[in-house]
Write a structure and sequence with these properties.
By secondary structure, this protein is of the alpha/beta class. The chain folds into three domains: 103 residues, Rossmann fold (3-Layer(aba) Sandwich); 84 residues, NadA-like (Rossmann fold), CATH 3.40.50; 79 residues, Rossmann fold (3-Layer(aba) Sandwich), CATH 3.40.50.10800. It is built from 14 helices and twelve strands. The strands form three sheets. It has a four-stranded parallel beta sheet with strand order 2-1-3-4, sandwiched between helices. Strands 6-5-7-8 form a four-stranded parallel beta sheet. Helix 4 links the parallel strand 3 and strand 4. Helix 11 runs parallel beside helix 12. It starts with a helix and ends with a helix. The structure holds 1,3-dihydroxyacetonephosphate and iron/sulfur cluster. The site of iron/sulfur cluster has 13 residues, from loops. It comes from Vallitalea pronyensis. InterPro entries: NadA, NadA_sf, Quinolinate_synth_type2. Its EC number is 2.5.1.72. It holds the Pfam family NadA. Keywords: 4Fe-4S, Cytoplasm, Iron, Iron-sulfur, Metal-binding, Pyridine nucleotide biosynthesis, Transferase.
């Protein structure tokens, strides 16, 4: 059944001249049929280089929107419109406009996990893999960082001489990790390095041997000699980790590290998306141009 659907999708993809991209948090069967699997930064960059007319984006809404902002002439399809990101909804453009007035000299750094409208209100975007270098690159001494307080706090711990004002958003998946859980696993696997995503809370990050985006965690795991590695991010990364390191054991910090939104997309949805060409992602042109400026400024770094 899975193979049949995958076969149908591969055929349809050719007929429709479509490219399928997937985030590392998608289910394994989706990652298997994708032309590109990557983290948010890699997928943003790839979106600009895709030759096909249509991009089927297996991820959440802000990611498909980012692809549309960067590639306005492509048809960008999000198979499940309800696949959103709760953190992206924790900041609205109206709220951001109000807070910006309180900090007229601050530059706004916006994590890509945000709506097109919020990106349009921002000076520059960042992802979890480049937040520190983006902030270091800015001349402004005061930074308003939206919406992820934990990525912002991690970046603040890595940069000098900047006043970083944090928005109070967070990822509902990474935020739930507790220090006791981590200490318990650390005790069980004392020699295993701990690799975590910067969306985790500071009391998790401070125990980590490495902090990075999903792609950075995957790269790091390849170069580590130890055979057991503790992972503090969404379970979808385990697919690539195991494929690339068949002789290593990966221990997830919690069984609850599942992003329900990322798991909404199924093979049936992808097949239907190709057949019906739904749901098309569109961004108002005025908003798109402003958001594009913030994204392009990040990409050009
Ligand atoms: P990265 O793709 O930058 O690792 O971010 C993870 C994430 O939470 C995406 O929603
Ligand atoms: Fe949003 Fe967190 Fe899911 Fe990423 S993992 S899409 S930040 S809820």
């Amino acid at each position: 059944m899975i193979e049949d659907l995958q076969h149908q999708i591969m055929k349809l993809k050719k007929e429709k001249n479509a490219c399928i991209v997937a985030h590392h948090y998608q289910t394994e069967d989706i990652q298997q049929i994708a032309d590109f699997v990557g983290d948010s930064l890699a997928l943003s960059k790839i979106a600009k280089q895709i030759k096909e007319d249509m991009i089927i984006f297996c991820g959440v809404k802000f990611m498909a929107e980012t692809a549309k902002i960067l590639s306005p002439h492509k048809k960008v399809i999000l198979p499940v419109m309800e696949a959103g990101c709760p953190m992206a909804d924790m900041v609205t453009p109206e709220q951001l406009r109000l807070v910006k007035k309180q900090y007229p000299h601050a530059e706004v750094v916006c994590y890509v996990n945000s709506s097109a409208e919020v990106k349009a209100e921002s000076d520059i975007c960042c992802t979890s893999s480049n937040a520190v270098s983006v902030i270091n690159h800015l001349d402004a001494k005061q930074i308003l960082f939206v919406p992820d307080q934990h990525l912002g706090a991690y970046a603040a711990s890595q940069v000098k001489d900047k006043d970083i004002i944090l928005w109070q958003g967070y990822c509902i998946v990474h935020h739930q990790l507790r220090e006791e859980q981590l200490l318990h696993i650390k005790e069980k696997y004392p020699n295993a390095p701990i690799l975590v995503h910067p969306e985790c809370r500071p009391h998790i990050v401070r125990h980590a041997d490495f902090v990075g985006s999903t792609a950075q965690i995957i790269d790091k795991a390849r170069s580590i000699e130890q055979k057991q590695i503790i992972i503090g991010t969404e379970r979808g990364v385990l697919y690539t980790l195991k494929k690339q390191n068949p002789h290593k054991e990966f221990i997830l910090l919690s069984e609850r590290l599942t992003c329900q939104n990322m798991k909404k997309t199924t093979l049936e949805h992808v097949r239907n998306a190709l057949v019906n060409e739904t749901h098309v992602v569109d961004v108002d042109e005025n908003i798109r141009q402003k958001a594009n400026r913030a994204l392009e400024r990040m990409i050009s770094l």
